[in-house]
TrEMBL record:
InterPro entries, A to Z: C-N_Hydrolase, C-N_Hydrolase_sf, Nitrilase/CN_hydratase_CS, Nitrilases_CHs
Organism: Neopusillimonas maritima
Family: Belongs to the carbon-nitrogen hydrolase superfamily. Nitrilase family.
Protein name: CN hydrolase domain-containing protein
UniProt xrefs under SUPFAM superfamilies: Carbon-nitrogen hydrolase (SSF56317)
Active site: E48
Gene3D superfamilies: Carbon-nitrogen hydrolase
Record PANTHER family: CN HYDROLASE DOMAIN-CONTAINING PROTEIN (PTHR46044:SF1), NITRILASE (PTHR46044)
Pfam families in the cross-refs: CN_hydrolase (PF00795)
Occurrences of domain CN hydrolase (ranges): 8-280
Amino acid sequence: MADTFPKFRAAAVHAASVFLNREASIEKACRLIEESAEQGADLVAFPETFVPGYPFWIWTHTPTRGAPLYYELFTNSVEVGTEATDRIGAAARRAGVYVVLGVSERDGGTLYNTQLYFDRTGAIMGRHRKLQPTHVERTIWGRGDGSDLPVFDTDIGRMGGLICWEHTMDLARYALISQRQQIHIGCWPGISALTHDPNSGFFNNVVETAARYHAWAGQCFVVNASSRIDDEVLKRLDLVDQPDMIRTGGGWSAIVSPTGRMLAGPNTDDETILVADVDLSEIVFLKYACDSAGHYSRPDMLRLATNLTPQPVTQPFGVQGSAWTEVAVVKTEMNKIEEDAT
């Protein structure tokens, strides 16, 4: 690209969804995109499944009790290429910004926990589906595949991201690092507001550790956006006035430099937009010491094998590159050898 180390302004949105309401959540997202652009942002990052909201009930309810809420999540989830994504694209185009939006994506009868990447023209550059839903999230979302680990080359730098507990998957992180990632978008839910969980008290510390460590280990900037819980969530979960179970607020959002320095935030609980100026030339000073996928690697001993191809459930027999094709080719070659032998 013309400028290897451009400067730009990043925005991390720390906000609650309009819970289980796709249209209203999209309307709010469009407003927040506009507000971020008014502050000079070139990149706007949203929390995990901002549209139509994170299914907090999976941590507080039994699966049977949560079934009606799942129905609402399913029917309010986002199908790519519909009016829902067109509206976000139009907002990105009007503002002239890149947008990374967390959505619950519906594809057929399966939901996916997805980051959608929009460019400045409003076009969808691609997506990242969460590779492995965490714990009881597996009752909600399917798994992504290798095609869901992209790094996009843009005029503000090479960007990609991970969702929540994926940050513990060191090989997934390294797959992004090996693609020369410069901008990392981390998105999380406001789990720290689930007070019944003994882990909630230090959850924000975990998020901070993940963000700052990836910035250091990947020699990249991290734009970390978390959601929060509002009164509507408490009402819909029938947990109003139960502070021992859940409270409003939650989340940890920040913009972090490659050295772990806070450029904006951290912010917890309150709804806000964090904005910071990013100068990618700062990456050079850390690469000088440790280019994790370059001079500081040891491929003679340690290598990452990645399969970045899609893994569809159905694939026509004979499609080039499929396992079925490879079997057919082997059988054909064996038949030829047998014929020659006779």
